[in-house]
Amino acid sequence: MKAFYTNDNGLLEIPKWTPNCWISIEDPSETEKKYLLEELQIPEAFYNDIEDIDERPRIEIEDGWTLIIMRVPIKSNDIKLPFQTIPLGVIFKNDVCVTITFYKTEIIYDFMLYSRRKNIQVKDNFDWVLRLLLSSSVWYLKYLKQVNQKIKLAEDNLEKSIKNEELQALLQIEKCLVFFITSLKANDVLFQRIKNLKAYKANYDSDLLEDVEIELSQAQDTANIYSNILTGMMDAYASVISNNMNNIMKQMTSISIILMIPTLIASLYGMNVPNGLEESKYGIWILLLVSVILSTFGVFLFKRRRWF
């Protein structure tokens, strides 16, 4: 999907390209790919780098074109991975500025509406990149709130019954948090590099830099807190499962020992050796009585030692 926006008291959509407008392309088609490579003549290597789902945030310059890749969060349709991060590339040169992502995101449309409400004026391409970093950090925090709700739901389910499904849900959430933490750290490194560019350092809005730094830091701290909580929760439930298994094994062993007592007595009585009871008509009853007494004593002893 291709859209053109001009900066006039916020971002306003326009029907075609004009100099210094912003071109937003999401999930590009072959036609849009040709437009980027043939009409705008952006480097094909930049396009291919953004297409790589695992591409790391960085800055690269080639033939006057500047590529800045950041990682942004999206809500996934994959049940096993409800949230993930993807590369979003900003490519600019002179009066051309393009953002490319190969997935649908909520960030671009949300930022467009936000810019209209706040009448935001984007000064230059690097100002635009910083505002995108700020917007992505806000969306990380929004998705982290949803992740926290999933953690609470899984915790409530685990309190009722420990099943594989609930533990797998926690593992899926943990995987999302790993993606978030890794991407946020990489975005922070990218932000520090942009912040310290000597050629543009004097032109940055100090308030904007502070906002980006605060939101990035808050998103990283929140993701780490949720990850630590989740890790502690999973460790606790793993201990509970292990303890329950030990209790079950202890009870089964105790029952086996109790059942072994009458079996041992019956085995000794049934051996082909004289025992004094083979001629007695009360022999079987004596053996039953001894078995009951010894088994009862064994149960009493185990209960006293809390083995049952």
Automatic annotation (TrEMBL):
Where found in the cell? Membrane
Transmembrane region(s) = 252-270, 282-302
What domain of life? Bacteria
Topology in the lipid bilayer = Multi-pass membrane protein
- Swiss-Prot/TrEMBL keywords: Membrane, Transmembrane, Transmembrane helix
The question of whether Zinc-finger is a record keyword is answered with no
InterPro entries attached to this UniProt entry: CorA-like, CorA_cytoplasmic_dom, CorA_TM1_TM2, MgTranspt_CorA/ZnTranspt_ZntB
Member of which family?
Belongs to the CorA metal ion transporter (MIT) (TC 1.A.35) family.
Name of the molecule in the record:
Magnesium transporter CorA family protein
**Organism, as annotated:** Flavobacterium soyae
The lineage, from the top, is: Bacteria, Pseudomonadati, Bacteroidota, Flavobacteriia, Flavobacteriales
